[in-house]
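Aim 2 progress update. The chain analyzed this quarter is reproduced below.
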Amino acid sequence: MKYVSLILLSFLMAGCCSVFRGTTETITIKSQPGKAAIYNDHDKLQGYTPLTITMNRGQKTYFSVVKDGYQPESVNLTRRIDWWLYPIDILVWPTLIVDYATDAMWIYSPDEFDVKLKPVEKPSAPPVKIPDTKTKK
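Predicted structure tokens:
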């Protein structure tokens, strides 16, 4: 009976989302053209595209995609609640508290980004007037 109580207590202390999915998620960022630098919201270089990053599910952040000769682009991570595990969480309500406290209830949507960088337009020089070198007679 002691072991059954321990197993039951362990089940109640682990959230459904935590058990089935964990508290991290993989995000993939690709770019066209490739080999663009990826910086996080603290301006720390994360790597170069294509890049796969493991993120905590509850983390709100954005990334900047930068390449010389191209306009920088931002990737905003949008998170939402993963509702399909909620019925189990509600039936065994302590798991809902655990999932909320550990941020395991969130998912990133989308979890893959394909960023198309636009070339920087070079300003065109104004037309140059060439003086007429012919002399009038």
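Residues 2-115 form one domain. The first helix runs from residue 2 to 13. These observations will guide the mutagenesis experiments scheduled for the next reporting period.
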